Amino acid sequence: MRVKRFRDLTLIEETPNKLLVIACDSCGAVGNKERDIVKVPPEVVGYYTARVALMEVLSVGAEIITVIDTLSVEMEPTGKGIIKGIEALLKEASIDTVFLNGSTEENFATCQTAMGITVIGAVEKEKLKANTSKQGDIVALLGAPKLGNEISYPTDEEICSIGDIKKLSSLKEVKEIYPVGSKGILYEADYLAKSNKCSFKKKENHQIDINKSAGPATVVIFTIEADKLSFVEEKLKRSLQIIGELIEGERQ
Questions:
Q1: Which superkingdom (predicted)?
Q2: Residue 244: in which H helix or E strand, if any?
Q3: How far is residue 139's CA from residue 164's CA, in Å, rounded to a whole number?
Q4: What confidence score (pLDDT) does residue 250 get?
Q5: pLDDT confidence of 152, banded at 50, 70, 90?
Q6: Hey, is 46 helix, strand or coil?
Q7: Mean pLDDT over residues 140-145, rounded?
Q8: Residue ranges per domain, the chain?
Q9: pLDDT tens for residues 187-201?
């Protein structure tokens, strides 16, 4: 059995033609407990923490097999609220909640919210959206970089939704998709380019802060041939921004 790392994903060769795709994420000090720094309902914690790992797995074209939550809080009432948020996300992504399992902390009382999430998916090797970009492809952006209280709860129309990334990953015109988190757009664009032995040339005069954290993956970037962008825009019914292109030569 071969195991390798790609971005924040673990890829396991289940068969010669099929890969297991695993992603995880964690969240702490966000919730409605005494020591939480960002005050939001438990449902929001569950929704946005699960969203990050789910988007990572979906971004490479995988189908979800299971979602596991590890909650460092009691089941009543905080855990139930977090699970409700995760279930809302799965429903939005058209994923049956039967795929969800997990555990809670029932031995000790907690004064701060914390949780982890693991998402496992599967994809045929030939359908894996990884290292398929090339020189001349444009790098486009969907969403807006936001974190913490900048995000409108329970929904924010400016950020990339789980439905958006499912549509993107289903389009053959879209080569690779990178969810953007705390490292920011520029970091991910440079990483994408380097992974394909190219350099990222950023477009001047765009109004997006490409160094800002995108929190719980409120932005995705993706590669595509320039003449295919309008088609994707039409399919998504969302406005897209070109932030740069892949050029020859790997940045040192």
A1: Bacteria
A2: strand 241-248
A3: 16
A4: 64
A5: confident
A6: helix
A7: 95
A8: 3-127, 138-248
A9: 999 999 999 999 999
**In CATH, which of 3.40.630.30, 1.10.645.10, 3.40.190.10, 3.90.650.10 is domain 138-248?**
3.90.650.10
Instruction: Please name the residue that has the structure tokens 């097999």.
Output: 65
Map tokens 């969203």 to a residue. 51
Token pair of 187, please?
């970091």
Distance CA 170, CA 127 (A): 10
> Hey, which CATH number is domain 3-127, 3.90.1560.10, 3.40.1010.10, 3.30.980.10, 3.30.1330.10?
3.30.1330.10
Distance CA 124, CA 201 (A): 32
Taking only the tens place, the pLDDT of each residue in 212-236 is 999 889 999 999 999 999 999 999 9
* Alpha helix segments (H runs only) across 60-209: 80-92, 162-170, 185-195
